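Aim 2 progress update. The chain analyzed this quarter is reproduced below.
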Amino acid sequence: MSSPAPQHLEKKPVKFSNLLLGAGLNMFEVTTLGQPLEVTKTTMAANRKDGMAGAVARIWSRGGVLGFYQGLIPWAWIEASTKGAVLLFVASEAEFYAKYFGANDFVGGISGGMVGGLAQAYATMGFCTCMKTVEITKHKVAASGAKPPGTMETFMAIYRAEGIRGINKGVNAVAVRQVTNWGSRFGLSRVAETQIRKMTGKSDTEKLGVMEKILASALGGGLSAWNQPIEVIRVEMQSKTEDPNRPKKLTVGSAFNYIYKNNGVKGLYRGVTPRIALGVWQTVCMVALGDVAKEAVEKLTGEAVTAKH
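Predicted structure tokens:
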């Protein structure tokens, strides 16, 4: 027999203001440090013989400071403005139903994060990450004297040649990354919060301070980079780098074998340093700044309702 649903489980509505807030915070995150760190880790993952200095020099040669923002417009902006809303909506629904069927807060939270991450990958992140990677890794045709194709021209060329599959290349790897990312971030952040409570002598009911919340979020975000091999596989599957020895149609398994054969274990973790920095920055923006912004929005909307009455 199935376990009975909790008696006092209340389903919280997903507020439109929170969806806009999620999109806004994601846009801020990616436009500041997010995209430069994304470009650096993608360049290192695609060019696995480059160290950090080599990757920075390679990016700089593509256009100076602007080289670090390749793929920002429109792909990173499209991804940023949609993935936060998708995560918030799907994760809250999944968490509610997990608890409805008897899961505790910890399991419910991780379940919500994992399902939300899965929805992110297939709804919006697949084609966005693919196009960002294409922009970062495609050869510079300008060197041969030809006019380099624009972003939309590149997109349409891939679509005409390979259809939906082409612009969503590597989406399964993105899905695995997002599921493990959000499961890790929820779980590891919760573990970090527990340890901080023990060290500061706070009970489970006491709220953590802003700096304590930032620390827990940063630890959760940084440590979630353990799954870097799937990120390197994702980049390889989406990369436009030419190599006659690379399998024509890459799957997650064949990409793993190709990277391991050519670059060993170290190659599977190439780009992990900027990935850790990116994970920390994302979680600080979305958790710490998110909490502060959410309180400010709720205060403003609350005052607006009071003023009407």
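The chain has one domain: 16-301. The mean pLDDT is 78. These observations will guide the mutagenesis experiments scheduled for the next reporting period.
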